[in-house]
Amino acid sequence: MSSLVNEGLRYHNDGDLEKAEQCYLEALSANSSEAYALKLLGVLQAERGIFDDALSYAEAAVNLLPDDIECKHLLARIRIERSEFEAAIPILREAIQKDGANTTAIWADFGLCLERTGVWTEAQDAFNRVLELQPK
C-alpha cells in the first residue's frame, strides 16, 4: 500500500472523506493499478451512497486482487445495497470458499441474498453457519 493510500486511510478513519478521496485519487494517478486505493474509493463512495461509482471501484479492485476476501465482500455488499441479490450470490459463494472466509458477516450476507431470491434451504444452511460462528 502506498504512502498516499496510508495517508488517505488516516483521513478516512478521521472522517475527512474529502481529503481521503483526494489521497486515493492521487495514488491512482501515480499508479493506476493501486488496488488498495480502488478498494478504499469503493468503500468511501458506498459510505456516501454513490453506489454506481462504488461498484466501479470495487470491481476494479477485485480484478486486481482476485483472492482478497474483503474486496469480494465489498463488491457483494454494494450489489446488495443496489438490491442486486442474484448478482451478489456468486461473489459471496466464491468468497466463502476462500481460506479465512469464516466470518459471520459474509455468511449472513450470503444467507440474506439466498433468502431474497427464494433459495430457502441453502439460505437456512447459511444462517445456521452464522450461528455456528457466533461465540457462545
Describe this structure in words.
The termini are far apart. This protein has eight helices and no strands. The chain is mainly alpha-helical and 136 residues long. It has helices at residues 3-13, 17-30, 35-48, 51-64, 69-81, 85-96, 104-116, 120-133. The longest helix has 14 residues, at 17-30. It is elongated and about 45 Å long. Helices cover 77% and strands 0% of the residues. The mean pLDDT is 95.
Helix-strand blueprint:
Elements: H1 3-13, H2 17-30, H3 35-48, H4 51-64, H5 69-81, H6 85-96, H7 104-116, H8 120-133
Helix pairs in contact: 1-2, 2-3, 3-4, 3-5, 4-5, 5-6, 6-7, 7-8
Shape: elongated
The secondary structure category is mainly alpha
Task: Compute the number of strand runs.
Answer: 0
Radius of gyration: 16 Å
Uncertain regions spanning at least 5 consecutive residues: none
Proportion of residues in extended strands: under 5%
Q: How many strands, what sense, and barrel or not for the largest sheet?
A: none
Helix percentage = over 70%
Write the element-wise H/E pattern from the N-terminal end onward: HHHHHHHH
Number of helices: 8
**Mean of all residue-level pLDDT scores:** 95
Distance between the amino and carboxyl termini: 36 Å
